[in-house]
Write a structure and sequence with these properties.
Helix content is about 50%, strand content about 10%. It is α+β, with helices and mostly antiparallel strands. The protein folds into three domains: about 110 residues, no CATH class; about 70 residues, no CATH class; about 60 residues, no CATH class. The strands form two sheets. It has a four-stranded antiparallel sheet with strand order 2-4-3-6. The longest helix has 21 residues.
């Protein structure tokens, strides 16, 4: 029945994010951005621009038990794509149905994308905006704010849900639209943070000695990983210095372009 409606919401399937959809109101900015981004899955024209969608090969989970790394990765991708397209920051996800008879859909790539493929176009030195501009970015910011607030021992007896609700209300007022961060999702996030806070109370709060230990473990692990990849990195640096393009080097070693950028930048090779 939903496929018969003129508007549907693809980018939020409740427990997952299956795709990225952007509401582009500036045709010139959209056309300029599409030149630097992977081919879209479909584009549906609107009065002022278009709704543009990229489909994910593996939907990213957003429930309380989901892994954090894919969510951080998806946040970076969505914020960069939004930036390049000059998209509407107040877009909540309700887009034109590409299968509707009046949609006028322009179909693009039939294959879905992995996060690595989408992230390969992000420049190495690009900085994510401090204020998130996408629904996915704002959801991630809500979670990080809740974790930071709950990690302060002074707030140990205050409810996380009330704090998240106050932030959500302010965001809704700033964008003059309802936040895509639903009440049920907010409650699930609050329960997850409360469990983390109970663990902190049991094992000790964020003590400087514990943080220093974790930093030391990370540094040792990084040195071991770099030692194991030293020969590969030398080959990458030599290829880039000899004039081979970043994309060609990435294909040769089975890496993303951003990884090759990182290795070359780390060693001072341009």
């Amino acid at each position: 029945m939903a496929w018969r409606l003129p508007y549907v919401q693809f980018n939020d399937a409740g427990a997952t994010w299956p795709c990225l959809t952007f509401d582009c109101d500036n045709r010139e900015a959209m056309a300029d951005g599409l030149c630097d981004l992977p081919p879209y899955g479909w584009l549906v024209p609107t009065e002022r621009g278009a709704h543009v969608t990229w489909v994910l090969a593996a939907p990213v989970a957003k429930h309380a038990a989901a892994r954090e790394a894919p969510r951080r990765y998806l946040t970076a991708v969505s914020e960069y794509f939004h930036h390049r397209l000059g998209a509407d920051p107040s877009f909540a996800g309700l887009s034109r149905n590409p299968l509707h008879s009046d949609a006028g859909t322009v179909w693009g790539s039939p294959a879905p994308y992995s996060l690595g493929q989408l992230a390969s176009v992000i420049p190495f030195n690009w900085q994510r905006p401090r204020v998130p501009q996408t629904g996915i970015g704002r959801n991630r910011a809500m979670f990080e704010a809740g974790m930071k607030w709950a990690g302060d021992e002074r707030n140990r007896y205050l409810p996380v849900l009330r704090m998240l609700q106050s932030i959500r209300d302010r965001v809704c007022g700033a964008f003059e639209a309802d936040h895509p961060y639903t009440v049920s999702e907010m409650r699930a996030t609050a329960r997850y943070i409360e469990r983390r806070r109970a663990r902190w109370e049991r094992d000790g709060w964020h003590k400087p000695a514990w943080l220093a230990k974790q930093r030391n473990i990370a540094l040792i692990g990084g040195e071991k990983r770099r030692a194991g990849k030293a020969d590969r990195d030398l080959a990458i640096i030599k290829a880039v210095a000899d004039g081979m393009s970043m994309r060609a080097v990435a294909r040769l070693h089975g890496l993303t372009v951003s990884t090759v950028h990182y290795i070359a930048h780390r060693e001072g090779v341009r």
